[in-house]
Amino acid sequence: MNKRTNFSWSEQCEPHKLRTSKIIKDHPEIRQLIGRNPYTFLVILLCVGIQLALSYWLADKSWWLVVGLAYIIGAFSCHTLFVCIHECAHNLVFKNRALNKIAAIIANLPMGLPSAISFQKYHIKHHSFQGVEELDGDMPYHWEAKLIDNSTIGKALWLLFYPLFQMLRPARLKEISLWDAWTVVNIVVEVAFMGGLFYLLGVKALVFLLASFFFSVGLHPLGARWVQEHYLTHGDQETKSYYGPLNVVNLNVGYHNEHHDFPSIPWNNLPKLNALGGTYYSSLHYHKSYTLLLFKFLFDKEMSVYSRMARSNRGKTKLEENVIQDGISYK
Predict the structure, then answer these.
(1) Residue 71 per-residue DSSP state
(2) How do residues 252-283 score in pLDDT, each as one tens digit?
(3) What residues pair up with 310 in beta bridges, in sequence order?
(4) How far apart, in whole angstroms, are the C-alpha atoms of residue 276 and residue 272?
(5) Which segments of the chain does DSSP mark as H helices, in order?
(6) Which one of 103, 186, 305, 318 is CB 3.0 to 4.6 Å from 117, fit for a cystine?
(7) Closest Cα partner for 317 from 30, 103, 101, 18?
């Protein structure tokens, strides 16, 4: 076996814009699915409420219960909140952009790390420049991939501390100013919230929230989502969807090909998009189990953090410019 020492390389533009054009031409009724879902804000309030209620209850409980419930309950609430932040990034909750930012900051509250506003900034670039290292915050650093290697322990540690790696990536992104008034508001609100929670409920409540967040995007079946979305598990197909039971509690986040093709369609309409798209989606490789994918990533020596497709920023097409990432129509 030859050890992978670099990302795979593509000379082609990312695949989603071309498929978007074909699907909308064959199925113009898909335009009816484009819009916003303000009920997502109720999901935010529910999940924040769950996390706060558990924090209060766990304040004087044993450590094994704090960590255990963070893994089996808190991780799911936090992951759903992360998906809600993602919806806010695409302005799919409210029409008003400021309201989407406020909703994202509220969803960010139980996570401990103030990341909602910065995520909104670099995530849209991920759609437009998938695989372009200097513009796509979802692409790992070369040193990151080299550091982790492809050992089971290395990949497990990478998933465990994935939030920290992800926080470092925006620093390399060009054309993005990470600091503005909204970023400061996000930080101040988050620090004040976590500080107040620590003062009122103590260290166990704080640890529960932080552990929930790290599990929700790290060493947990839910963490396999990052492998599912863009790691090369099936040849050179860059994006895979997940069609499994966790879509029920995580707002259809697994419909990732569908989301990249039509980022202006809210989470509740993605299954309808899949049905209308027919063979455009049924012909693609997909995953049905996050748990199986997690073990495949950890123990398959052919897979590593290098298992990503990279591309140059050259050759941006007119079609790409015509796709509105957070609007309500496609040209």
Answers:
(1) I
(2) 999 999 999 999 999 999 999 999 999 999 99
(3) 9
(4) 6
(5) 16-26, 40-58, 63-69, 75-89, 97-108, 116-128, 142-148, 152-160, 162-168, 181-201, 203-216, 224-230, 256-261, 270-277, 279-282, 290-299, 318-322
(6) 186
(7) 18
* Residue 98 amino acid letter: A
- For residue 200, the tally of other CB atoms under 10 A from its CB is 11
Q: Is the pLDDT of residue 58 over 60?
A: yes
Domain positions in the chain: 8-317
Quote the CA–CA distance of 125 and 178 in Å, as a whole number: 13
Amino acid 132 reads V
Are 192 and 258 a contacting pair, CB within 8 Å?
no
Q: Which of 48-57, 232-241, 242-251, 319-328 has the lowest mean pLDDT?
A: 319-328
SS3 221: helix
Q: Is 314 left (phi over 0), alpha (psi -120 to 50) or beta?
A: beta
The answer to whether the beta carbons of residues 37 and 268 sit under 8 Å apart is yes
Phi/psi zone of residue 309: left (φ > 0), alpha (ψ -120 to 50 degrees), beta?
beta
> For residue 74, what are the contacts with CB-CB under 8 A and spacing of at least 6?
51, 54, 208, 209, 211, 212, 215, 216
Element (H, E) at 286: strand 286-287
Facing residues of 323 across strands?
330
